[in-house]
Design brief:
Helix 2 packs across helix 4 and helix 4 crosses helix 7. The chain is α+β, with helices and mostly antiparallel strands. It folds into two domains: 77 residues, no CATH class; 227 residues, 3-Layer(aba) Sandwich (Collagenase (Catalytic Domain)). It starts with a helix and ends in a 9-residue tail after the last helix. The longest helix has 25 residues. Strands 3, 5, 8, 10, 12, 15, 17 and 18 form an eight-stranded mixed beta sheet that branches. Strands 19-20-21-23-22 form a five-stranded mixed beta sheet.
Length: 416
């Protein structure tokens, strides 16, 4: 009997069980595995590591509690950059090797918009989620409108006379904290004139651009421009860049800009060094019976916006905190060497050989605006557009490059 018990003990010690001369199981020696937990932006985890000895199928652990003091915890994942959790705290998880698990969490950053007596405010709160160790996230600024006023963007102060306007409506910015911003606006100022005119109708283009129609514009004019701006936006939404558009009666337009009807549209900003560029278009409502005329004026003036905003976009990935005219204005498209070379090339040709109308050669800024207008009317308008053969390939390639950069939020690497 004792010899039999010793045999059993010996078999167990060497790890073999024999039935009828057949080995049916062998005990294996398994080493412990370590599961390491990373905060990854969270505040605390109740356990930084757990060790377990695996069986033949692995070992099961209970995931520890995790907390984020300034945000929300979603759980754990194998990838620290994930925005969704694979596991929840308290889950029992089968482990069969060493592993790293990362807490997945986010911080909700909220920008509150004060009404500040505007006529229209798209949203009074906007937010974004900064995940894990991200210190900021992007928020698109909502549209606002004050009828008959020039819009100056948002600032942390209620008045444009007391602070820089750091944020343009319709543009995206990185925010790293909660804050309250105020929509700023100013009397439209033309030289020494201040104009506050009565608005008949406001039209919002796809939550991107404000179009104000002055009282006195006919319904036909209003309907025509609505169709045109919708069509431009559908084809090239980045043409607008949040620029405000005023469609004015002939009386008001001539009173403000003069020109005896030779001026059809004006793209301007509040030309004060303390404030960044905020583009506004004034367009003569009565110009042209043909819809192509109205297309032309709008795309020309919007071309000025693309030109001016380029320097801002390239030089200011974050909100402007200094004088636009010294830090960004000199980098407008009109100041780029390839555009200068094309301008000088074509302006020296005889008038009949030039690819654009004579007005394009008044100065380089008008050359840029005309190039954008002609490009749009040549390559994107389905009928009554300009002859493709008349648009030179070198100008086409250059304009397409700057449109690509604008479309891709000024990321030069995407438009080689």
């Amino acid at each position: 009997m004792n010899r039999f018990l010793n045999l059993i003990i010996t078999i167990l010690v060497i790890g073999v069980v024999i039935v009828c001369g057949i080995i049916i199981y062998r005990y294996a020696t398994f080493k412990a595995h370590t599961i390491t937990f990373h905060l990854n932006g969270a505040s605390t985890i109740s356990k930084s590591k757990i060790k377990c000895k695996r069986s033949i199928n692995g070992c099961v652990i209970t995931l520890p509690k995790v907390q984020r003091d300034d945000g929300v915890v979603l759980g754990y994942s194998l990838n620290k950059d994930d925005k969704e959790a694979k596991y929840k705290p308290g889950d029992r998880v089968l482990i069969n090797n060493n592993q790293n698990l990362y807490a997945i969490s986010y911080r909700d950053i909220v920008v509150t918009i004060n009404q500040n007596n505007v006529d229209y405010l798209e949203k009074d709160k906007v937010n974004c989620l900064a995940y894990n160790e991200d210190v900021s996230c992007k928020i698109k600024m909502p549209l606002f409108n004050k009828k008959g006023y020039q819009l100056e963007g948002y600032s942390e102060k209620t008045s444009v006379t007391s602070a820089l306007n750091n944020y343009f409506q319709g543009q995206e910015y990185d925010f790293d904290k909660n804050m309250t911003l105020y929509p700023n606006y100013n009397n439209v100022r033309y030289g020494n004139k201040k104009m506050v005119y009565e608005i008949q109708e406001t039209y919002i283009v796809a939550n991107n651009t404000i179009v104000d129609f002055e009282k006195g514009c006919s319904q036909d004019v209003i309907n025509t421009y609505k169709k045109i701006v919708d069509d431009i936006y559908q084809k090239m939404p980045y043409y607008f860049l949040g620029t405000k558009i005023n469609i004015l009666t002939r009386k008001t337009f001539l009173n403000v800009w003069g020109g005896g009807g030779n001026i059809l549209g004006v793209n301007y900003s509040k030309d004060v060094n303390d404030y960044p560029l905020s583009r506004t278009l004034d367009v003569l409502s009565s110009y042209g019976d043909d819809w192509m005329d109205k297309y032309y004026v709008l795309t020309h003036e919007l071309g000025h916006s693309i030109d001016f905003y380029y320097g801002y976009g390239i030089n200011h990935p974050k909100p402007i905190t200094s004088n636009y005219y010294t830090t960004g204005g000199n980098q407008a498209i009109a100041n780029q060497s390839d555009i200068k070379n094309l301008y000088n090339k074509y302006r020296l040709l005889r008038a009949s050989a030039r690819p654009l109308r004579d007005y394009a050669y008044k100065n380089i800024n008008e050359f840029v605006a005309e190039s954008f207008a002609y490009y749009f009317l040549t390559f994107t308008v389905p009928t009554k557009g300009y002859d493709v053969s008349e648009y030179p390939s070198d100008l086409k390639n250059t304009i397409e490059k700057y449109l690509c950069i604008t479309k891709n939020n000024y990321d030069l690497t995407k438009c080689t």
